[in-house]
Write a structure and sequence with these properties.
Elements: H1 9-20, E1 24-28, H2 37-40, H3 45-57, E2 63-66, H4 68-72, H5 77-90, E3 97-102, H6 106-119, E4 124-127, E5 146-152, H7 159-162, E6 165-166, E7 169-170, H8 171-180, E8 194-198, H9 203-213, E9 219-221, H10 231-238, E10 243-247, H11 249-252, H12 260-279, H13 283-288
Parallel strand pairs: 1-2, 1-10, 3-4, 4-5, 5-8, 8-9, 9-10
Antiparallel strand pairs: 6-7
Helix pairs in contact: 3-5, 3-12, 8-9, 9-10, 10-12
Length: about 300
């Protein structure tokens, strides 16, 4: 299968946002216990369940984010391959972010990158930057793919390390600065290829990160919905230009009957529309407008 595109990942995400008028990313975390009973006995239940969710919501989203552990734990890696291939074939233009949170170095990092980008054909992957530059640069050998570095995550325990003060600033800010600084200047950055994971449960920190990295770096934002993140506060902090707002369980498991896919579509539509309302204009108009420096959320006080 060919590479997803010869254009930069950030440009593809922004194109998907514009074309579908959406910032919504649907996370694909298929828990076998919660898959509808009429599918549970199928040997390809995980693929069938996720494919139905994808087909029901693809016109509402700017990305899909499968979590690799939910597939690997069930020995369903081949179903993950088939699912990503289906997304590329049936819904071209919708990027796939593989949520793997890899973080090794050297030859091992190269093998992980081959797994994500060659085996699974993901457009982007989530990475832990804890081991520094050596854990990031191997992934940049694929110039048309993206990486999202864990920066300020949505879980409370993230503060154990991410809030530690290093040279006068929290560690998560140091990560953001390194991501925004080009490799040839001592940073980790590669324009159009590096993004950050920032949790909706910490809107003040999202705002700091956005100030550091500027309006164009993609921010992958989990934490809306089951984790309790505030949508309006998130939009005010992150802006609309390159913010990928993820929701998983609230959409995946909106229904448990044979119409589960339509229940998922209804939940995705509701959240997409709530994002538009929070911004106060269409996503398309926000992206095509003057830019983040002049953007003001009409709900902000």
């Amino acid at each position: 299968m060919p590479a997803p595109s010869d254009s930069g990942f950030a440009q593809r995400v922004k194109a998907a946002m514009r074309d579908r008028d959406s910032l919504l990313c649907v996370g694909l975390d298929p828990d076998p216990v919660r898959i509808p009973r009429h599918l549970a006995s199928r040997s390809d239940a995980i693929f069938t369940f996720c494919r139905a969710i994808v087909d029901a919501t693809a016109d509402l989203v700017c990305a899909f984010k499968p979590q690799i552990a939910y597939f690997a734990a069930q020995r369903a890696e081949e179903q993950l391959e088939a699912l990503i291939a289906h997304i590329h074939q049936a819904h071209p233009g919708v990027p796939v972010i593989l949520d793997a949170k890899r973080g090794d170095i050297g030859p091992t990092a190269i093998q992980y990158a081959r797994e994500a980008f060659e085996r699974y054909q993901a457009d982007a992957v989530t990475l832990s930057p804890y081991m520094g530059r050596d854990s990031i640069t191997p992934w940049l050998e694929w110039p048309d793919r993206g990486i999202f570095l864990l920066c300020r995550t949505s879980n409370p325990g993230g503060s154990d390390l991410q809030s530690l003060t290093i040279e006068g600033r929290p560690l998560f800010e140091r990560v953001a600065h390194l991501a925004a600084t080009p490799l040839n200047q001592g940073g980790w950055g590669a324009p159009g290829r590096v993004g950050l994971v920032v949790g909706a449960t910490f809107p003040a920190e999202i705002e700091r990160v956005r100030t550091i990295v500027g309006p164009d770096m993609p921010l992958l934002i989990p934490g809306i919905g089951a984790q309790g993140g505030d949508l309006d506060a998130t939009i005010r902090a992150a802006g609309p230009l390159a913010s990928v707002i993820n929701s998983s369980r609230d959409i995946l498991y909106a229904g448990a009957g044979e119409d589960f896919d339509q229940a998922a579509r209804a939940a995705a539509t509701k959240l997409r529309d709530s994002i538009r309302t929070s911004i106060g204009t269409s996503i398309r108009d926000a992206i095509q407008g003057a830019g983040a420096s002049s953007y003001t959320n009409p709900q902000a006080t």
